[in-house]
Amino acid sequence: MTGPLDYDGFRATAWGRAASFVGNGMAPVALSFAVLDLTGSVTQLGLVVGARSVTAVVTMLFGGVLADRFPRRLVLQGTSFGAAVTQAAAGVSVLGGFTSVALLMVLSALNGAFAAVELPTTTALVSQTVPRELLRRANALLRTFTATATVCGAAAGSALIGWAGPGWGILVDAATFAVAGLLFGRICLADAPPTAGRRSLLGDLREGREEFLRHRWLWTVVLHASVWQLVWAGSVQVIGPAVAETHTGPRTWGFVLAAQAVGAIAGGVIALRRRPRAALATGVLLTSVSAALPWSLAGAPRALVLIPAALLAGVAMEQVNVALTVAVQERVAPRRLARVTSYQVLGSLAAVPLGQLVAGPLATAFGQGRVLVAAGVSIVVVTLAVVAVPDVRSVREGDKGDQPRTKTSEESVT
After folding, report:
1. Alpha carbon of 325 to those of 71, 318, 349: distances in Å?
2. Under 8 Å between Cβ of 21 and 149
3. What b/e readout covers 57-96, taking b as 16+ CB neighbours within 10 angstroms?
4. Residue 145, domain extent
5. What is the pLDDT of residues 180-213, one digit of tens each?
6. Which of 190, 223, 253 is the last residue of a domain?
7. Would you call 201 helix, strand, or coil by DSSP?
8. H/E run at residue 148
9. In this structure, what is the dihedral angle of CA atoms 34, 35, 38, 44, given to the nearest 10 degrees?
10. Is residue 212, in this structure, part of any structural domain at all?
11. pTM score, two decimals?
């Protein structure tokens, strides 16, 4: 039976994406220790890491425009080699002893911009590399590859930093991005390239926004993702470590985070083997399972409870991620796919900084336990509300749905 990896274009895309995510797994570890060695300040570390996140959010929509205007293979190559250069400069500055927080912030911001372009480009490219009936398996495989690569990158980065120092860890990270660029260069597609320059940048953004809003099921699920990310960022990413420090210790919390990553890998395997017709509604409903982790932090912050809860959360979230990606690829006009994806990702992640910002004050005002319980309740309530929307329940994999029935020559993409 033919599978996604039998297609050269998808195989190159998957391996290139995996190589870049090995780097993404290494980068936070290496960069964190580089900044802490330099300054010893968690605040300064936050500035460097935050510079990447803010830039990624700001440039996300622009990344979608690029991917819809120019050959996507070339866009992926450019972002990969650009990320390699920024990380190589950071590594050399650390090893050379002339680095600074300001320099690392600039390089981190540039790296975030390249990452923001790569994500919508890859999502749009997958639908061109495999037949429609293999989209679910292709996206599940891609997410399994990237989750595994992230775990391996984080582990390898920790070992390398302990042995040779953070500077060398950042340089190896740069090498993984260069490898990704070479692999992306092996993508060969017969489709005509996108037509560049037909509209202004604002015109392209407007068209992408209109396409995004035209699909009620899409912006409804993205609204759900935004609320989930806001709650998760505050409860698990901010309050979670504080609870762990008091009750279990940092090592156990590391196992909890690793369990979530392993759950994501297992979730990708499950998505490969099963294809429910109402995959989107099923995936959204399963996200309610993730409420178990903040509730466990509130009531039973022990390893035997936290680790299974994190594992289940990883499995559940991967189901909705795969289902949403497939639904977008099947039902959005191809020429607008990268821009719609960029709106989707931006809408999902924009609330993360807010969740991180308000978690501390809320925990101080109401207590950690109450905020964690409220976080779990919020996840369940918003999930049930979104599943109740008829447009979400009506999405079926394999149906064209609300995508235009015909495709003009303008809709041809690479």
Report:
1. 21, 11, 15
2. yes
3. bebbbbbbbbbbbbbbbbbbbbbbbbbbbbbbbbbebbbe
4. 1-190
5. 999 998 887 655 445 444 567 778 888 888 889 9
6. 190
7. helix
8. helix 135-164
9. 180
10. yes
11. 0.75
